[in-house]
Specification:
This protein is mostly helical and 85 residues long. The chain is built from four helices and no strands. It has one domain. Helix 2 runs antiparallel to helix 4. The longest helix has 47 residues.
């Protein structure tokens, strides 16, 4: 049996313009879903980041006020709080 006989018995899949358009739509929807998921992940990361920065500022105010003075530590804490997004 030759290769030519096998090809003749099988259907050859041909993409129409409509098939290509649907593929483009599916790709676009997949891109949008990824964009939404990334945005949600970023929001959670920023919330965690802000919480950690606040904890650091509070820790500085509690533990280092006496050794370094209230004005100096207030300045450091304000600088750290400005890093929040």
């Amino acid at each position: 049996m030759s290769l030519r006989g096998c090809i003749a018995n099988e259907e050859i899949a041909v993409k129409t313009e409509e098939d290509e358009a649907w593929e483009d739509v599916e790709k676009a929807l997949g891109w949008r879903k990824r964009q939404i998921v990334n945005k949600m992940d970023n929001a959670e990361k920023e919330r965690n980041r802000n919480e950690v920065l606040e904890e650091v500022a509070c820790y500085l105010e509690k533990k280092f006020t006496l050794p370094f003075g209230r004005d100096t530590i207030a300045s450091f804490a304000a600088s750290i709080r400005r890093l929040k997004r």
